[in-house]
Amino acid sequence: MKLKRVLKWSVITMFFALVLSILVGFIAYFRSTNECDVRSAPPTHPMRAIRFCEYGSTDVLKFEDVEKPVPNDDQVLIRVRAASLNFVDPGLMRGPWPLRLMTGLRKPERTRLGTDVAGQVEAVGKNVTLFKAGDEVFGVTRSSIAEYACARERALVIRPANVTFEQAGSVAWAGFTALQGLRKGKIQPGQKVLINGATGGVGTFAVQIAKSFGAEVTGVCSTGKVELVRSIGADHVIDYTKEDFTKGDQRYDVIFDNVNNHSFSDRRRVLTPNGICVLAGIGGAGLHPGMLGRVVGILRADLLSRFVRQKFVRYGTKTDKEDLKLLSDLMQTGKVTPVIDRTYKLSETAEAMRYFEEGHARGKVVITVEQGEQGSLGL
Ligand SMILES: NC(=O)c1ccc[n+]([C@@H]2O[C@H](COP(=O)([O-])OP(=O)(O)OC[C@H]3O[C@@H](n4cnc5c(N)ncnc54)[C@H](OP(=O)(O)O)[C@@H]3O)[C@@H](O)[C@H]2O)c1
Q1: Which mutation among 199, 239, 258, 266 tests ligand 1's pocket best, with the greatest number of atoms within 8 A of CB?
Q2: DSSP per residue, 153-164
Q3: Same domain, 43 and 135
Q4: Do residues 238 and 132 share a domain?
Q5: Same domain, 252 and 356
Q6: Please, are residues 206 and 198 in contact by the beta-carbon 8 Å criterion?
Q7: Whether residue 42 is found in the same domain as residue 131
């Protein structure tokens, strides 16, 4: 009798919890809005930028006038000369459902693209001490795919003279991902390091940074990119269309895995007894089949590796001024040269995104910014 009552009340409670969460979900969905709904008047101080008011394909990317940003006391206003596309950008634009819990349920809360930036300082906030108007800088900031962007002082460094704006604008996020991932793998000089997915934005930095640490580097890529991977310094190249690196005899101290398309046990087999596999990514940019399986594979590998000697480690890329300085030094000394696949004008960002979303870029896809650029989209 008592059990029956408990069961009855459990079912009732669950039913109400379900109804309540559906209701909350609906309210959150319909309350989800963004600045496009709020601001209808033309901007007072306009600048050109790429903006998307809805989630969707590249058609949602509009080249239009928006309000020029004003730096706060701790920020620098940058006249943007170059920025680049990163793995996160197609996701922000398309808004796959799990991501929408963070980016806005019905409409994107963040309506602008861009993470990396290179350009000239135009103005500084009153607490900024490291930069002045006219300095040429590069680093990290949001919404950089525009004529102007504001960035925190600690997310910028001076652009080395031997590095072009296009190169500098392609570095930060992919460079951080490669550098911080290799550190997670506790990379040491003389170690054998394999980079799976050696040719994209992150992979081309990972190969060069691993070489700069004195590692013996093997890059994994498709047939047409073997020469590219050699040209950026890899000691060995494996064409994944012909050979599976997990089936070979070579053992690696570090696997920097940008793709995660092999099983836990296959990768363990080619790791040294104390080897580390860095779970860096899930393959090329854009939505592609197998993505979900790779995400599950990453979580599984992370869990299973707690019970074995070899380690499979996850990490999230972070903005770090010291890392930015190191990347700058590596470029200044010629140890790292950003690989730029294609450059597009600001007004051509939708086209750039279409190409990037194919997931097979040779290095970075860069957006260059000219003042007062005229374009056909959204005007
Ligand atoms: N951990 C973090 O915080 C973080 C931050 C940013 C990015 N990421 C990750 O980094 C990864 C790479 O980003 P990205 O910007 O470099 O993308 P990308 O420029 O599109 O490059 C993707 C790379 O994946 C390779 N690839 C695709 N299928 C492959 C396969 N079957 N075998 C081997 N390589 C394959 C491509 O090479 P081919 O063209 O030769 O196939 C290319 O080198 C993403 O998966 C992302 O998740 C992680």
Answers
A1: 258
A2: GGGEEEPPTTS-
A3: yes
A4: no
A5: no
A6: yes
A7: yes
CATH code: domain of residue 220: 3.40.50.720
Contact call for residues 168 and 159 (beta carbons, < 8 A): yes
The predicted structure's pLDDT at residue 378 = 37
134-154, pLDDT tens digit by residue? 999 999 999 999 999 999 999
Please work out whether the CB of residue 175 comes within 6 Å of at least one atom of ligand 1.
Answer: no
Q: Which residue has the tokens 């939708």?
A: 350
Of 169, 164, 177, the residue nearest 146 (C-alpha): 169
Measured CA to CA, the distance from residue 44 to residue 231 in angstroms comes to 49
Indicate the pTM of the whole model: 0.93
Residue 2 covered by a domain: no
Which range of residues forms the domain containing residue 224?
174-313
Q: Using CA atoms, how far apart are residues 97 and 103, in angstroms rounded to an integer? A: 10
Question: Kindly report the CA angle at 316 between 231 and 163, in degrees rounded to 5?
Answer: 40
Question: Do residue 291 and residue 183 come from a single domain?
Answer: yes
Residue 207 Cβ contacting ligand 1 at under 6 Å: no
Structure tokens at 305: 């590796």
pLDDT of residue 27: 62
pLDDT of 377 over the 50 cut:
no
What total of structural domains would you count in the chain?
Answer: 2
CA-only gyration radius of the chain, Å? 23
pLDDT band for 19, please (50, 70, 90 cuts): confident
State whether the beta carbon of 165 lies less than 6 angstroms from ligand 1: no
321 in a structural domain: no
How far away, in angstroms, is 193 Cα from ligand 1 center?
17
91 and 128 both lie in a single domain: yes
Same domain, 52 and 153: yes
Same domain? For 153 and 273 the reply is no
Tokens of 100: 């929408």
